[in-house]
Amino acid sequence: MSRLYLMRHGQTLFNELKRIQGACDSPLTDLGKSQAEEAKKYFESESLSFSGLYSSTQERASDTLEIVKPDEAYTRLKGLKEWNFGIYEGSPEYLNPPAQEGQESYGDYFKTYGGESVTEVEERMSETLTELMKQHRDGNVLAVSHGGALYAFYLKWRKAEDIRPSFSNCCILVYDYEDGKFDLVESINPGQ
């Protein structure tokens, strides 16, 4: 069995300004850098080592990983990118569609506007992370991604008894991986 540490990037300027941020990017704030430092301290306190380090190709994720694991080689992967929100990118968050009764995500909403559906994000994240875990049998993997992508992955693999984790900046979702399946073990929010 191997273990996946799936982490969200630190706070960004767009997070602070309450802007929709998917395919577009913005830099880490001072708070975001501090959050990454807290995650670094957590991994050090647990004496965790990783057989693979990965991040989204977006700078906010790679910048976070470079703080958490400075001077260590890692691979950037498009499959770990944030949900693409189409023409809503960079818009104020209040323009997000209202939650539909009985739905837990935006579903196909953003696909109509040039973005991705939740199913597409679930599949992309699952395919990417499954391939990574196959490469690191019996090892720990750290992957830095994004809130919407983490949430879509969670929806794909959750079990009825799972307690909904926090998807705050620099949260760490810990999954066991075995026989092609991911099992959520815990959610960690360093420094909070």
UniProtKB/TrEMBL annotation:
Please list the coiled coil stretches.
Answer: none
Organism the protein comes from: Ruoffia tabacinasalis
User: What's the protein name?
Assistant: Histidine phosphatase family protein
Q: Which SMART domains does the record associate with it? A: PGAM (SM00855)
**Classification via CDD domains:** HP_PGM_like
Source organism, top-level taxon: Bacteria
Q: What is the lineage of its organism?
A: Bacteria, Bacillati, Bacillota, Bacilli, Lactobacillales
